[in-house]
Design brief:
Oligomer: heterodimer
Helix content of chain B: 55-70%
Radius of gyration of chain A: 22 Å
Membrane topology (chain A): Multi-pass membrane protein
Largest sheet of chain A: none
Structural class of chain A: mainly alpha
Radius of gyration of chain B: 20 Å
Order of helices and strands of chain A: HHHHHHHHHHHHHHHHHHHHH
Pfam families (chain A): SSF
CATH class of chain A: Mainly Alpha
Number of helices of chain B: 3
Family (chain A): Belongs to the sodium:solute symporter (SSF) (TC 2.A.21) family.
Strand content of chain B: under 5%
CATH superfamily of chain A: Sodium/glucose cotransporter
Number of domains of chain A: 1
GO molecular function (chain A): pantothenate transmembrane transporter activity
CATH architecture of chain A: Up-down Bundle
Structural class of chain B: mainly alpha
Number of strands of chain B: 0
Main location (chain A): membrane
Chain lengths: 489, 88
């Protein structure tokens, strides 16, 4: 057994221990408080965990594998495109964190769809969103498993199936056994491993390349466009702007980011979550993306650009440290999968099932949570067995689809009193139709080369406003619950 | 029953505005630096627009974010219960 495998197995063993330990905590909770504990960790998470949930949840294989892969392929232009990630925690918790925090406590919401249910009081919206969340997040989860398996396989020499099992089954253990409690404990360990791994990879790569100046000169000699912010005109400023919208302003539409808003303890934790999240994503993104570009000065002819991060981990640093980088990359992916697993499970087992079977007992709900969680992760692992080639496109497609469906109903729903369930349904449907058309038969809808989600989100907002204005206002009860001052008990 | 707006909602709106304004300023600065600074002369061995626009500017904005968030977003209670508010 080499040192890389040993360090990675040690990390995996810690995660399994966390799963078992958190299972004991969750099992001690009275059955009537089980859902609040399983889905929202008792709503008592501090700033650093909130920061890690948002940062780790939104920074996926797209950041840890495809990020350096894209900078390797497109030079510094893709570093610019990745720099809009840094403010994801600000742009999620800033706009809706306080409102969700207040309303979640008023209506005892513990899941993403509980908030929609309280705001729109519509069974149709719950059913549509549960379906869309599952449809978009399951393949997204599968791509994360594929990315993790490829990295583990490449770095340890183990086969794809064994690597897939190692990278994915551990997530299944701590998510199914410990729910959000297990996830939040694991994410603390993973946050440290990710940060240490990214910094080590960056320092190792820069040293190996002989410093910034030497690497820049070598890259310039290969192709001067690698030093250009547009890759010689390949990425227009408007395309850059549309991606800034997608991973910046529109991030409110990402369901797994809602976990942080539902679980933070108080506004002090919220504020720390915002700026700590920014610092973490800055460190991860700059270290990984810069390593990807500088890696081109070390090895200019890698056949698969996405393999640059694991290649560097294996070649520019000692074996044992390479194992830590490997654990860091896989940890970054696992945090995303865990957040998604909680969201899908809560949408199906807590919201959809209760809409269909309102007399569900707490014991049945508990069983349903674990069975759904296990099934979702198993399906995602099953899809990962197909080994899809272009995971970055699936990731971008899923993010765009989720934002096109939910951005308007979430953001306007939290601040505009006239927004109603008719507006929300029309907005979700319009966003989905425009997004589907732009991705298939009418590519002209990608205005000025923008990402298809751009027009879909803008149109869905307009439709939300128009339909809400011409249909009845929401009930006084909804208005009081979301924006009214309630009598103190 | 007459509707009285919860004063915390005003703070939530301000926080929303603050977040989007802050990101918009960042977006303008980073895109301005990236498209107008040019590649040479190199700075710290990196293309000029990368060193300033993609390393120094983000670090400054992230560090300033700590101050902006702690200074401009007040601590507010999240529950409607008076005792809980005091504990927040």
């Amino acid at each position: 057994m080499n040192w890389a495998i040993f360090s990675f197995l040690a990390y995996t063993a810690i995660l399994i221990a966390i799963g078992i330990w958190s299972y004991r905590i969750v099992e001690k909770v009275p059955i009537e408080k089980y859902e609040k504990e399983f889905y929202a960790a008792g709503r008592g998470l501090g700033g650093i965990v909130v920061a890690l949930i948002i940062a780790g949840g939104l920074a996926s294989a797209g950041t840890f594998i495809a990020g350096p892969g894209m900078t390797y392929a497109y030079g510094y232009s893709w570093v610019l495109l990745n720099n809009f990630n840094f403010f994801s925690s600000l742009l999620f918790l800033g706009p809706i964190g306080i409102v969700v925090g207040i309303v979640a406590r008023r209506v005892n919401a513990v899941t993403y769809l509980d908030i929609f249910k309280a705001r729109y009081q519509s069974k149709a919206i719950i059913v549509i969103l549960a379906f869309l969340v599952t449809v978009f997040l399951l393949p997204y989860m599968a791509t994360q498993f594929v990315g993790a398996a490829r990295v583990i396989s490449q770095m340890t020499g183990m086969g794809y199936l064994v690597s897939l099992a190692l990278g994915s089954l551990v997530v299944l253990v701590y998510c199914v056994l410990g729910g959000m409690r297990g996830t939040s404990l694991a994410i603390l360990i993973q946050g440290v491993v990710i940060t240490v791994g990214c910094i080590m990879l960056f320092i190792g790569t820069v040293n190996y390349a002989g410093g910034f100046k030497k690497s820049t000169e070598i890259i310039a000699a290969q192709n001067i466009n690698f030093l250009s912010p547009t890759m010689g005109g390949e990425f227009s400023p408007f395309f850059t702007f549309s991606l800034a919208c997608m991973i910046g302003y529109f991030v409110v539409g990402m369901p797994h980011a809602m976990l942080a808003a539902l679980t933070y303890k108080n506004t002090r934790a919220l504020k720390r979550g915002i700026w700590m999240g920014g610092i973490l994503v800055l460190i991860w993104t700059i270290c990984l993306c810069m390593s990807g570009v500088i890696g081109r000065a070390i090895i200019p002819n890698l056949a698969v650009p996405d393999e640059i991060a694991p290649w560097l981990a294996m070649h520019v640093m000692p074996e044992a440290l390479g194992g830590i980088v490997l654990a860091g990359i896989v940890a970054g992916i696992q945090t995303t999968v865990a957040a998604m697993a909680i969201i899908i499970t809560s949408s199906i087992a807590k919201n959809l099932l209760k809409e269909l079977k309102p007399d569900l007992s707490p014991r049945e709900a508990k069983l349903a949570s674990r069975l759904t969680m296990g099934s979702c992760l198993t399906i995602a692992i099953g899809i990962a067995l197909l080994q899809p080639e272009l995971i970055q496109w699936i990731i971008l497609f899923s993010i765009g689809g989720l934002e096109a469906a939910t951005f308007g109903p979430i953001l306007l729903g939290m601040f505009w009193k006239k927004g109603n369930h008719w507006g929300a349904i029309a907005s979700i449907c319009t966003g989905m139709i425009i997004y589907a058309l732009a991705n298939t038969i009418i590519p002209q809808l990608r205005l000025w080369g923008a990402h298809p989600s751009f027009l879909a989100v803008i149109t869905s907002i307009i439709v939300y406003v128009i339909v809400s204005l011409v249909t009845p206002k929401p009930s006084d009860e909804i208005v009081r619950t979301f924006w009214g001052k309630l009598k103190k008990t | 029953m007459k509707f009285i707006e919860d004063p915390r909602i005003k703070i939530a709106r301000k926080t929303f505005a603050l977040s989007w304004i802050y990101f918009t300023i960042y977006l303008l600065v980073i895109m301005g630096c990236s498209y107008f600074l040019g590649i040479k002369p190199y700075l710290m061995g990196l293309p000029r627009w990368v060193a300033i626009g993609n390393i120094l500017v983000p670090i400054v904005f992230i560090l300033a974010l700590v101050f902006v968030i702690e200074k401009f977003i007040p601590d507010v209670p999240l529950t409607d219960d008076e005792d809980s508010e005091n504990k927040e």
